[in-house]
Structures are given as C-alpha cells and as structure tokens.
Amino acid sequence: MTADKPPPSLEDLDERLRKARSAQEHAKPPTRSGPIGQALRLSTEMAAALVVGAVIGWNLDSWLGTKPWLLLLFLVLGLAAGLLNAYRAAKRLQDAVDNEDKSSGA
After folding, report:
1. pTM of the complete model
2. For residue 67, what is the DSSP state?
3. How high is the pLDDT of residue 33?
4. What is the distance between the terminal CA atoms of the chain, rounded to a whole angstrom?
5. What is the CA radius of gyration of the chain?
C-alpha cells in the first residue's frame, strides 16, 4: 500500500456491496436447460425407475424363488414411479415457465 491514498472506509465498502447485491437480485436468472436437456432428464427419470424396479424384483425373485412374479410386480411399480416422477418434473418445469411469463409481463 502507498502512503498517499488512505484505504477505503467500511461505509464505502458497505455501500458498494449493497449496490452489487441489489443489481444481482434484479438480474434475470439464467434458464436451466433447453428442451433437449429437459427431455433427457424426463426420460432418464423414467428409465432409472424401471431399472430400479427390475433389479429389486429380480433380486427378490432369486431370493424367494417366486420367478417371474415379483419381477413383473416391481416392473409395474417402477413404471408407475417413473411416470409419477416425470409428471412432477414436467409440472415443475411448466410452473417455472408460467412464473417467468408472469414476471416478464406477457
């Protein structure tokens, strides 16, 4: 540091921080992903639920000797869980789009 300039005061720093925070709050948040990313997310959620259901059913069938009934049961449960997760995710995405449209005045 040089002796010619005194360090900025804490009040000045506080004022600059307030301005930066208010500018950041008013900035438009970036979009999360495009349509391809959203479709990939929804399909991944459905596939993951099916795989988990199949693995659970397969293992229970092997352990209990009830082939193929528990595999079929857990595949159906996995399908239902995947559809429900995809529906919820799509609803959240639609709500975010609706809120963005309302905030922009459209």
Report:
1. 0.63
2. T
3. 74
4. 52
5. 26
